[in-house]
Amino acid sequence: MEKKIITISRQYGSGGRYVGQKLSEKLGIPCYDEKIIDMVAKESGFAQDFVAEKGERMTGSLLFNIASSLSYANNILSGNGMSLQDEIYFIQNRIIKDLAEKGSCVIVGRCADYILRERKDVLNIFIYADMESKMERAVTYFGLEKENVSAILKKKDKARSNHYKYYTDQEWGMASNYDLSLNSGILGIDGCVEMIEKALTIAK
C-alpha cells in the first residue's frame, strides 16, 4: 500500500475510535488517538486529563470560551500570548503533521482532517449513527446512565462542533468536509472498516 493517512472524525457514541483501531490493525499501521494526548501532555507539561478535555472539545458556550481565552492570555501563560486551549491546539497541530510526515497511519479526531488539508495522501472519514445506536453504545461501553445518556451525547457533540468551528471555521460533520461519511448504526464497526478499505483502493 502506498503511503496513506486516514483521519477519522466521529460523533460521540458512534464507535469511530473502534473503527480507527480495527482499521489500523487490518492495515498494519499505527493508530493515534490517546497516544496524541500523551505526546501533547509530555510536551506541554499539562495533565493528560486536561489535554484530553481541551484538545478536542470546547467546554461551555463558545462565547464563554472565547472570553476565557482573552483572560487566559494575559494571566496564565508566560510570554506566548495564547490561551491554554490554543497552546494545546498548536502543539497538537505540530504533532499531527509530524506523524503524517513519518508514514501511513490512522488519526482519530483532533481536527486532523483540517490540519492535514494540504496533503494529497489523506482520506478523511466521518463516522455517525442514529441516536438509538449511540445511546446503546454509550450505556454498554461507556457506563453512562440510560436516563441521562441522550443529553450527554448531545452535549459532547455540541462541544466537538464548537471546537471544530472555532479552529477551522468549518462545520463539523458536514459531508463536504470529508471524503466519506459512514453510518455505523447501519454498517456496524466492521462494515465501516470494510468500506474504508475499499475506498483506499480506489481513492486517487
Describe the structure.
The chain has 204 residues and is α/β, with parallel strands linked by helices. Helix content is 58%, strand content 11%. It has nine helices and five strands; from the N terminus they run βαβααααβαβααβα. The protein has helices at residues 16-27, 34-44, 48-54, 62-75, 84-102, 112-115, 131-142, 149-168, 184-202; strands at residues 5-10, 31-32, 105-108, 122-128, 180-183. A five-stranded parallel beta sheet has the order 2-3-1-4-5, with helices on both faces. The radius of gyration is 17 Å and the shape is globular. The relative contact order is 0.21. The model is unreliable at 60-79 (pLDDT under 50).
Element layout with pairings:
Elements: E1 5-10, H1 16-27, E2 31-32, H2 34-44, H3 48-54, H4 62-75, H5 84-102, E3 105-108, H6 112-115, E4 122-128, H7 131-142, H8 149-168, E5 180-183, H9 184-202
Parallel strand pairs: 1-3, 1-4, 2-3, 4-5
Helix pairs in contact: 1-9, 2-5
Strand content: 5-15%
* Multimerization status: single chain
Strands side by side in the biggest sheet: 2-3-1-4-5
Q: What helical percentage do the residues reach? A: 55-70%
Tell me the structural class: alpha/beta
Counting H and I runs of at least 4 residues, what is the number of helices?
A: 9
Please give the radius of gyration in angstroms. Answer: 17 Å
Largest sheet: 5 strands, parallel
Helix and strand pattern: EHEHHHHEHEHHEH
Low-confidence stretches: 60-79
Dominant shape: globular
